[in-house]
Amino acid sequence: MSAILLIAVPLLTAFVSILFKKYSHYMLIAVSFLSVFALGYMDLETITIGGFDAPFGIVLILDNYSLIGLYLVNILFFIVAVLNCKEYKKLSSILLVSLAGLNGLLLTGDLFNLFVFLEVAGIAAYLITTTNKKPLATFNYLVQGTLGSSLYLLGLILLYAMFGTLNMSDMAREIGTSGYGAGVTALPFLLMFIGFGVEAKLLPFNSWAKGILASSNSLSGPMIASVYAAAISLVFGRLLTNVFVIEGTLLTIVMGILVFSLVAGEAMAFSSKKVKEILLYSSVSQAALVVLVFMTGFAGWAVYLIIGNATAKLVLFLVTNIAAKQLGDDEVDTFKGLFTNNKVVGLAFTAVTLSVVGLPFFFGFVTKMNILENMFLSGAYVWPALILITSFIEGIYFIRLLLNLWHTDGDSPEVKFDFVLKYVVVVIAVLTMIFGVYTKPVQDSADDLVVYSITEGGNF
Amino acid sequence: MLQYAAIAMLMLGLYGLLTQRNVIKIIVSLNIFEIGLNLFIISVGYVDDGIAPILTSNFNNNGLIFVDPLPSALVLTAIVIGVGTTALALALANNIYQKYGTFEIDEMGEE
User: Fold this and answer.
1) Can you give the pTM of this predicted structure?
2) CB contact under 8 A, A157 and B44
3) Rounded to an integer, what distance in angstroms lies between the CA atom of residue A224 and that of residue A318?
4) DSSP A52
5) Cα–Cα distance measured from residue A391 to residue A33, given in angstroms and rounded to the nearest whole number
6) Do A160 and B33 touch (CB under 8 A)?
7) 59-98 in B: which are within 8 Å (CB) of A?
8) Contact between A161 and B84 using a beta-carbon 8 Å cutoff
9) Which among A282, A419, B27, B60 has most CB atoms closer than 10 A?
10) pLDDT tens, position by position, B35-88
């Protein structure tokens, strides 16, 4: 089966579903399920579109890296879609467009095509966030997102003017053989970095995140913080490891941005009094951590970090948003003792939180431990120290949050979680624990998960 | 020469985005930025005395200089995306006006 179908079918169904409004949410469920299912029948290949061979035409690349990304994004998307399809029926067509955009983002091997999919996914994301009923926050997101992708386009065009190609692997080859130093490509790379930084919630460029995620609901929260974050980080990782050449002063600047983002994110989460704000600032610093790990060259482990974060944020945002909707607000004080009445959800929430912090016997520990080990082995002592310190801060505020959620002196609030949600949350928590103990498959595959090689991707 | 005009327009749009506090003016600035960007892309493909890159059978134009057709194709896509975003932004502006009764962000009393 061709990977084009992963983009074409959702896009076509999106337009068909406008004609059959009544059944659009069934179409959404069917298509998102089928795309998870169809992934099992895909061969690893490079697909040329329109009969123009790379580097002249657009190629879609399905390799190990994009396949694991597609599995992650499609499964998470399916879960979010199933849990919300009844409540947000009107958005079914938009969700289908966003599925097409996200799949395209992960598959494409062409820099301009990437911009198009970024905008498709972006416009769908703006529409999804309109369900927050905060038009000003959505407007902020739209302006920043559009400006970010315009800067990406500007950087891309500068690269095209220099090297005359848009294909990712061809671009990487041209840059490698041109003999230009990092100084020449610094401006386009910085522009593209900023463009992606906006979408990936890196700190100086992410002022939209608070407005969107602090007032998110059970659709927009998990969608933006988990599904979109995973897709964008994976694409960012592909660019950082394959295309971008970042050296010298530029490397210092970029690393500075990342460290600032990592530390400030944790600090803001530490000082927040609202559950959603704690979660959103924690995802800001996690995004920076992922990019940092990609920059230091451990792509395989960065992918596992993304998987761990995305699944964890899905659970955390789902539970928080459903509870916040029934309780009226998301102050930690209102949430006090939430889990005394909902022990199953509480245990799952706890397991996932501890995995994000990186305690032993959870999946997060395996990834963080290996990242630290590899960094120590490569002789860079600054980054492990930084990661350990931020993990420590993270541990303090998350465990403080958990204590508040489990323990109360007065009455504990009544919140009803429906069966499907409980099931999903428990399965994710159990998986987190299983892969935290049974680490062999994770350890073995991380080394194989090298990001695609130039000969494979270029098709020439 | 066209490049400088395009960059001036880019900067003008960016200045507008940074300084304006009115929803509609922000959208206009965003559009100016995008038009500047599109002009810049076109300017990348422009060649002095170049002709349209069309291959014809009755006229041998092998020896002539063509302008680069790819940036024009890219701009076409970028314009379409820009229009889509502008439409969405205007719809949001309408929502904002219905909720707050004003376009001035400072008067909305909310961050």
Assistant:
1) 0.91
2) yes
3) 12
4) P
5) 36
6) no
7) 70-71, 74, 77-78, 81, 84-85, 88-89, 92-93, 95-96
8) no
9) A282
10) 999 999 999 888 887 777 777 776 666 667 788 888 988 999 999 999 999 999
